[in-house]
Specification:
This protein is an alpha+beta fold. It has 5 helices and 13 strands. Strands 1, 2, 3, 4, 5, 6, 7, 8, 9, 10, 11, 12 and 13 form a 13-stranded antiparallel beta sheet that branches.
Length: 244
């Protein structure tokens, strides 16, 4: 009996120590597959990220250009360069290039390339190329780390029949407190949440069950990019002084 009580206490303590999920839209939570992530933390050398039926090749920090994309050519000066191949269970693949920490001279180019009307200092962007269909999908996130009320995190993923807005998530499931740091991101098709990624701790990914196989692969690729980006390269955003 004592052993059973001890086991119950240990289990309760373990449950209490488990990190809660980020708060995702209830419909997405009910209609998606949630994946635990492996490989996000630890050694960056020979890093491979896996979740469920999705896995990457070794993450390359610095580009080895295997295919010609205007995206790569335009942003050679960025300090952070990531490239990898994203696979699904059927060995379908997507080639991914992502960048962060741009030179100031590249900011007008990125505004022009992505058609962004507003100027921000902080961007993380990339492109996903699916060889089997020959389709490109671009994504961009501005203000990737801090989400001030007056400096809202925004972004999008666009491609073939896919046009999602990216919204920062600052709250954990079951918690009342809202922070200013983005703990993850949700991807919205209008009012409908279609995917989400948690970028703290080991990471988690949600993919809506109704997505096509290609769109699931693309969103898995984007989720991976957001999990492995180096937030330490972000410059601190000046805090807005309180008003009296």
């Amino acid at each position: 009996m004592k052993k059973l009580s001890l086991l119950l206490l240990l289990f309760a303590a373990f449950q209490a120590c488990k990190t809660p999920d980020i708060r995702v839209h209830p419909e997405l939570k009910a209609e998606s597959t949630r994946y635990e992530v492996k490989g996000r933390q630890g050694w960056m050398i020979n890093q491979v990220v896996t979740f469920g039926e999705y896995n990457t090749s070794r993450i390359k920090r610095g580009w080895t250009v295997k295919y010609d994309l205007p995206f790569i050519v335009r942003f050679q000066g960025a300090s952070e360069k990531l490239s990898y191949t994203q696979y699904d269970a059927d060995s379908n693949r997507a080639e991914v290039s992502a960048i962060g920490k741009f030179r100031n001279t590249e900011l007008p180019i990125i505004n022009d390339y992505f058609g962004i009307p507003l100027n921000y200092k902080h961007y993380f962007a990339g492109t996903v190329y699916v060889p089997s269909s020959g389709r490109n999908y671009d994504f961009i996130l501005y203000n990737p780390t801090t989400n001030w009320v007056l400096l809202k995190t925004n972004g999008y993923v666009k491609g073939n029949q896919l046009d999602y807005n990216i919204v920062g998530v600052r709250k954990l499931e079951g918690k009342k407190y809202w922070g200013i740091e983005n703990l993850g991101y949700e991807f919205y098709d209008g009012p409908q949440a279609r995917a989400a990624v948690e970028v703290i701790n080991k990471g988690k990914v949600w993919l809506h069950d109704a997505l096509s196989q290609e769109h699931k692969l693309v969103m898995a690729a984007v989720a991976t990019a957001l999990m492995i980006r180096n937030s330490e390269l972000d410059e601190p955003i000046e805090q807005i002084p309180p008003t009296n």
